[in-house]
Amino acid sequence: MSQPFSKCLFLPVLFVVLTFTFSAACLGAPSNNVFQVSWNPQRITNGSPCIFTATSGEPLQALTGTFLGREIRFFPGTQKNTWYGMGGVDVGTPAGRYKLELVGRARNGERWEFQQTIFVGKTSYPKITLNVPQRFVAPGPEEVKRIEEDKQIKTVAFLKGEPYPEWSGDFAMPVDAPASDSFGTARVFNGKVASVHRGTDFRVASGTAVRAANDGQVVLAQPLFFEGGCVMIDHGDGLKTIYMHLSQIEVKPGEHVKKGQVIALSGGTGRATGPHLHLAVRWEGAYLDPMKLLKLPMPNYREHEAVKSSD
User: Fold this and answer.
1) Is the pLDDT of residue 179 over 90?
2) Whole-model pTM?
3) Of 57, 100, 160, 167, whose Cβ has the fewest other Cβ atoms within 10 Å?
C-alpha cells in the first residue's frame, strides 16, 4: 500500500461518434474528407485510460495526436481507414475541457489537422488512515540515501520502452482476487504523511502467484525501499504496469513476458500494512486506474499487424 511512482474495439455501440469536416487544413482534398472520432469509455474522468478511434474519409499514411500535453501514437485497425490510439488522464488532472489534436498525413502528402474538445469529469476518492513502521514516514540518513537511489533507478526504468504496442487485446487480472483498496484514495500514514494511492491493492496471501497483465518487456525487477519487491513491465506505446510488495521475483530486466506468465510471488515487503499485491498503471507519466484498464476493451494489435503486413 505505497505510493510508487481477444476483444477488438469493433463495437460501434460503445462509442459516441462525432463527425467534423476538414476545411482550410485540407486544401485541395476531396470534399468527402471527414474525420469520425470516438473514445471509450464514453465518460472520461481523472484516472481514466481510454482508446481513441479515428476514421478518415480517405486513406492516411500516418496519424498522430496530443491530449493533455501527451503524445498519442495511432496505429491502423482492421477496418478501412480506421486508426486506434491509447490515451489517459492522470489521477491529479482537474475536471475541465481539453483539446484532442490530430495531425494526419495523406498518401498524396497533404497534411490534415483536426481538433476536438473533450470534457474530463471528476472522480471523488475517499480518505483513509493507515499505520506503518515509523522508518517509512521519518526515514533516517541511510534510508534517505536509499530512497534517492531508488528514484534514479525508477527514472531510468520509466524512460525505457518501445514506441508501439507490445500488448495485444484486453489486459488480464494479475491475481485471482477482488480489489481491496481503491485507486486515488487519499491516505494518511501514522497521522502525518499524506499521499494519493496511485494503484489498486489486491488482498492475497504471501506467496500467491502474480501474473503479467499483458505482453511486454521487464524494465525493472528488484527490491525498492517503499515498493518492496518490484517488477515493472513495459507494454509499449508509453504504457507500463508496476507490481509491488513482492516476496519473490521470477523475472529479470530485459526479459520478454507473455500475458498470464508468472512474474513474481506476492508479499508484504516495503511500505505495506500486510501481505497484498499493489498494481499500478502508468501511461506517458500519468497514473491511471488499473481496474478501469482491466475492464477496458482493447484493440488486438497482433491482428492489426497481420492485416498491415498483408497489404
Assistant:
1) no
2) 0.82
3) 160
